[in-house]
Amino acid sequence: MKHVLFSLLLIMPFSTLYSTTTLAQAPDAAPSKPIVPTLPHSPSEDNSDSSTDDIIKILRKAKSFNVLIRLLKTTQLINQISSQLITIKSGGLTIFAPDDGSFSQLKVGFLNSLADNQKIELLQFHILPTYVSSSNFDSLSNPVRTLAGDNPTRLQLNVTAYGNNVNISTGVVNATVTGIVYSDKVLAIYHVDKVLLPLDFFKPKPPAPAPSPAIEPKADNDNSSTDGLGTSKDSAGACSLTSTQGTTLVSLGVALVAMVIISS
Length: 264
What we know:
alpha+beta
């Protein structure tokens, strides 16, 4: 019994030291938490290279993106961004995807009123030429550059992340990122609750320049001069004739009066 107690006394300090050392170790750092949640119908994350080959399949599987799919196809922009994803070496793409409900909020006939190049620019305005993870929105610098360009007076896109919210402002609408549709190391697709409308689509256009007044053909100077001169000559001649006749009549009158006086 004494041997057992002695053995226990020897073991206890070592076990206490081990426990203290274990508790003193710092816990592993927690992984960064995504700012936006994954949507219920989103495809599961896939890190394989083949996952980015067909954006249309991803959107179809996520459901409620029929209008966006149709626009990507009719404008053929899907071919450009799919090719870019296949050949890209770094950077990736980030797509803000409005669902069908977001498009239904637009004014009736708005999409049909856009020219083909405007529809392409509208879609490009929803795509960033870099991959942004769900926990990295706060690292973006405003205005954020899109595939449509980075002209702040025409195509201004500002992204603000705080807490668990990511807001997007275009100067026309204020939208919110509501969830992750798809994400891997190259492609990220996020659901937004509104169509991102560029300010340029709603800025008043400068009025068209007024047409220059029509120049009337010049009158024939020779004829007009001749006519004018002729009129002047005729008028001068008439005046001269009248003056001469008047002088003659006065002279005759004076002569008659003188003859009457002499006769008397």
